[in-house]
Amino acid sequence: MNAPQHELQVKGMSCQHCVKGVTRAIQERDPQAEVLVDLASGRVHARTTLSHEALVQAITDEGYEVTS
Question: Any idea what the CATH number is for the domain that residue 42 is in?
Fold first, then answer.
């Protein structure tokens, strides 16, 4: 995929259920998105065609706080 890479700091993720929820929320909006969640650092790395704003909205809608 030749889409932009985004890196976001996300608060509130603590388990694999959180990883699945965030990944699903992004991939529902962009099925081709590549998502990597690092629970230890609270970082979400996503290669997606979604805008930064749409990515933040997807994560926020899932119940998490994007801090950067």
Answer: 3.30.70.100
